[in-house]
Design goal:
6-stranded parallel beta sheet; 169 residues; Rossmann fold; 36% helix; alpha/beta
Length: 169
């Protein structure tokens, strides 16, 4: 399977996990999966995602929908809408597919996609990573990666708010 140069062709809407799963498993390629909100893409995200992508032939990102981000992060988030976040991620050469999901966790997505490798940040213990049991039961790996210190969307958002006191949405 070769990488597509058109970012829009990498994006699968919410509810299309079975279609993406069929595509992923038609060849012999290994699949790495991670997920998140990726609200303001920054150097920390690029570092984390590029290292995750090196673990397998294909990189799939589960992207929280806007409604899911609001439930997880609060009413002031997301800063960028799901279409914009998906397009920015899909524009990264090492990302093969983006799939949107509206649940608070990617459990059903992992169950459908059956990735070979599941990746999360090292702030998670492997046994607490949603879907780790599914991946390990089929002989796959669960990998935790350290984050690049000093980079987080929450820290960026706070710096913006502090630099512009009194401004609200």
């Amino acid at each position: 399977m070769s990488r597509t140069p058109d970012p829009a062709l990498k994006i699968f809407p919410e509810g299309s996990a079975s279609r993406l799963a069929a595509l992923l498993h038609e060849g012999q390629a290994s699949v790495v999966f991670t997920n998140g909100c990726f609200d303001i893409l920054h150097r920390g995200h690029i570092d984390y995602l590029s290292r995750a992508a090196r673990l397998a032939d294909l990189m799939v990102i589960g992207l929280n929908t806007d409604a899911s981000v609001r439930r997880l992060k609060g009413p002031h988030r997301p800063i960028n809408d799901e279409t914009g976040r998906a397009m920015v991620l899909a524009g990264l050469g090492f990302v093969d597919y983006i799939i949107l999901f509206g649940e608070d966790t990617p459990l059903e997505l992992i169950r459908s996609l059956q990735p070979d490798i599941l990746v999360k940040g090292s702030d998670y213990a492997v046994e607490n990573i949603v879907g780790s049991d599914i991946v390990m039961a089929k002989g796959g790996q669960v990998v935790t990666l350290d984050y690049l210190p000093g980079y987080s969307t929450t820290a960026i958002e706070e710096r913006i708010r502090t630099a512009n006191p009194g401004q609200s949405e």
